Amino acid sequence: MKKINFLNGFVKILIIVFMIHFVTSIYLTFFAPDFINISDEFHKNSIFGYYTQFMTLTFSIITFIGLIFIQRGLGITIKNGFFNKGSGLKFKTAGKLFLISGVLSLIFDLMIAYQSENIVLFGNLGLNLLLMIVGFSLHIISDIIQNGSLIKQENDLTI
User: Fold this and answer.
1) Rounded Cα distance, 17 and 8, in Å
2) Per-residue pLDDT in tens (0 to 9) along the chain, 159 residues
3) How far, in Å, CA of 28 to CA of 33, rounded?
4) Are 32 and 53 in contact (CB under 8 A)?
């Protein structure tokens, strides 16, 4: 259970880091300093125009919500033990959110790479694939937890 507590603390730190990221991103979007002077031509050449800058923030919000579901699932696991339906449902929801965020980010980065013909974005593609793998893994783990919960309930009834 010490490892679950450590993981819960780590997820809480990640949530705080994401909150700082959101505050700074929103501040820089609306109150950009003079040295971050983005011209209107840059937005005209972007895929979604002015709204391109909000796309990555949207993907981060989806990932942030997934982290909140992971933290809630870990909290339920700490209170009720490893095999319970509540944590399995939270992990499954987090996995779906990570998959959605990873797929949408991958599509978005591929569109930007195609438009800009820039190889620098291929590092982001690896991160998007990793996010999709984590989401799929959470989905599998939630199935294992839910099956273990069912077996535990049947075992408790036979005793």
Assistant:
1) 14
2) 889 999 999 999 999 999 998 888 888 777 766 656 665 566 566 677 767 777 888 898 999 999 999 999 999 999 988 888 899 999 999 999 999 999 999 998 888 777 776 666 677 888 889 999 999 999 999 999 999 888 888 888 876
3) 7
4) no
The model's pTM is: 0.84
Taking the alpha carbons of 120, 121, 127, 132 in that order, is the dihedral positive or negative? Answer: negative
Report residue 95 as tokens.
């996995």
Sign of the torsion angle spanned by Cα atoms 13, 18, 75, 94: negative
Token pair, residue 31, equals 């109150």
Tokens coding 72: 């809630």
